[in-house]
């Protein structure tokens, strides 16, 4: 069945719609009605960023969001309430801690600890290409040993009591190999993985260039479990395309979500979903480049507001905000100037004033897509 087929559906609030509805994918079998996700990103996908994404999500929809990758070696000795990377919002749901690890005792201790904040599921990182993870045989290195990787899934499943997923790449070397990927994902499926995300760029490509969504299609057709596409999904149209055209069960957005944190609203609007985010009930989602430019300023101020709630250290807020701006401002005409301005602020109040001033002095139109270098 075409996942984007029109059909009648009762939306929350009793509104009947007969045009496009939410795509029906295999993620429904895990209870996920809205198959759009925001990716794990070190230094970015903290509790404040997740709150920003939620603030832009129409009422009634629940995109899954991730924590940044968390070392299972360190986690057992850390405090969930005070370690910034581990913080969660009160009653936060639909979030997934992403684990970096390969030893049962650390995985089990980390999972046990995280269960107390009631995550929706757990994800295992098998895609990180940085040298530190390679040295420890974590991340993408696990793709080099399918039996061991399957064992890591098995250990996590034993302790998790909820869905376990794996995020992996198109290949663990210079190039992608469909045969290797099919074998590897079959091993993860047999070990009990509930779903997979594929970032179809091989290790050597890091995050550059375009992603090979065709590879996701091939894997998705071969696997019984849901397969989510990640990589180079920059717009609502891209997100719908990977599901409609490439048979992905979900679309996971990383960097573009730091440029347009309202992308879930854009997707919902493209699907004729009748509700807006709370507090924006009578508005349509920003889609023109000028409207996105204005919204970006507003989003940055909202993010700083959330950061002030969760992070007591001013330096930490400044550092994390600058990284957020460095990542997402590329989608804006004056993005470089905006990011530079953020590096000059010496305090959070100075940063806030500079952003407000920037917003008043410049229009800052967005680019629909950027080239990843
Ligand atoms: C700054 C940054 C940090 C990242 N950290 C993680 C991480 O912690 N775990 C992970 O699985 N992937 C991580 N990634 C990879 C992204 O989740 C995603 O796979 C990649 O950026 C491709 O998606 P995109 O093209 O939509 O950005 C990171 C990417 C970036 C740019």
Provide tags for this entry.
binds flavin mononucleotide; 373 residues; TIM Barrel; 10 strands; globular; two-stranded antiparallel ribbon; 13 helices; single chain; alpha/beta; eight-stranded parallel β-barrel
Structure characterization notes:
The protein has 373 residues and is α/β, with parallel strands linked by helices. The protein has 2 domains: 252 residues, Aldolase class I (TIM Barrel); 73 residues. It is built from 13 helices and 10 strands. The strands form 2 sheets. An 8-stranded parallel barrel has the order 3-4-5-6-7-8-9-10, surrounded by 6 helices. Strands 1-2 form a two-stranded antiparallel sheet. The radius of gyration is 20 Å and the shape is globular. About 3% of the residues have low confidence. Bound molecules: flavin mononucleotide. The site of flavin mononucleotide has 24 residues, from strand 4.
